[in-house]
Amino acid sequence: MVEIRVPDEELVRRLGARLVCRACGVTAAPDAPAAGRCGRCGGDLVQRADDRAEVVLERLRVFARDTRPLVEYYRSRSRLREVERCRVTRRGVRGGVAAVAEAGR
Fold first, then answer.
1. Closest CA to 85 of 9, 2, 1, 7
2. pLDDT digits (tens, 9 = 90+) for 73-87
3. I need a surface site. Which of 37, 70, 75, 90 has the fewest CB within 10 A?
4. Torsion of Cα atoms, 85 then 89 then 91 then 97, to 10°
5. 49, 42, 7: which is closest to 28 by C-alpha?
6. Using alpha carbons only, what angle is made at residue 2 by residues 91 and 28, rounded to the nearest 5 degrees?
7. CA torsion sign, 21 to 23 to 25 to 29?
8. What is the pTM of this model?
């Protein structure tokens, strides 16, 4: 099992900044201007309802309550690999892939 560890504040920030096109549903590039238009169809970019801070925080609470025991189970059996602060870079992705491969051994 691989646990990708990202601080809650960072997850709230990243998801809160994610924008989607109201017209075609495409997810905008992370550097798209907040008041921008969709690069595909020109539609308005909006925040998804489930990316609001209070919704993300509730999802994190549910994860802690329901999934954390499973993480601890695998940790206690030395079957858990942890990847710190997964970054959206080639290096970060390669590190995550390497951790998954290592966990399978």
1. 7
2. 999 999 998 888 766
3. 90
4. 70
5. 42
6. 55
7. negative
8. 0.73
* Domain that includes residue 84, residue range: 2-103
Residue 77 tokens read as 């059996």
Domain count, the chain: 1
pLDDT for res 31: 73
d(Cα 15, Cα 72) in Å, to the nearest integer?
26
Pick from 25, 8, 4: nearest CA to 16: 8
Sequence-ordered list of residues with C-beta below 8 angstroms from that of 5, at least 6 positions apart, any chain:
82, 83, 84, 85, 86
* pLDDT, tens only, 14-55: 999 899 999 999 998 777 665 688 888 989 999 999 999 999
Q: Tokens representing 54?
A: 């209070």
